[in-house]
Amino acid sequence: MMVDRTLILYSKPGCHLCEGLQEKLEMVKLSSDLSFAIEIRDITTDDRWFAAFELEIPVLRYGTATGDEWPIARPSPRCTVVQLEQHLRKAFATIEPSPTAG
């Protein structure tokens, strides 16, 4: 089943941790069956984002079609692509409704 997912990565120019996470997210997309889009949000372009995430980036969120955002725990900068994939699978299982729920 194809699921429309958007991962929002709050970042800023020059943030090496942000760049590393973005690269790993791209690798997960290419090397696994997980389906998601990645939206990069530069916190320096929005005062609200800057105030909320200045000291926290990289921040990863799960964006919904209604504009809601669900936090995803920050993976270790040392995690491998496989570990990041496992981390995302756990996050998706927590956030998304079960197909049998209802």
The main β sheet shows up as: 4 strands, mixed
Per DSSP E runs of 2 or more residues, the count of β-strands stands at 4
Question: Looking at this structure, what is the CATH superfamily?
Answer: Glutaredoxin
CATH topology: Glutaredoxin
What number is the mean pLDDT? Answer: 92
Strand content: 15-25%
How are strands sequenced across the largest beta sheet? 2-1-3-4
Question: What tags apply to this protein structure?
Answer:
4 strands; 3 helices; 102 residues; 21% strand; Glutaredoxin
Protein described:
This protein has a single domain (6-95), classed as Glutaredoxin, CATH 3.40.30. The protein has 3 helices and 4 strands; from the N terminus they run E-H-E-H-E-E-H. Strands 2-1-3-4 form a 4-stranded mixed sheet, with helices on one face. It starts with 5 loop residues before the first strand and ends in a 7-residue tail after the last helix. It is an alpha+beta fold and 102 residues long. Helix 1 packs across helix 3 (81-95).
List the topology elements.
Blueprint: E1 6-11, H1 16-31, E2 37-42, H2 47-53, E3 59-63, E4 69-72, H3 81-95
Parallel strand pairs: 1-2
Antiparallel strand pairs: 1-3, 3-4
Explain briefly what this protein structure is.
With 102 residues, the protein is of the alpha+beta class. The chain has one domain (6-95): Glutaredoxin, CATH 3.40.30.
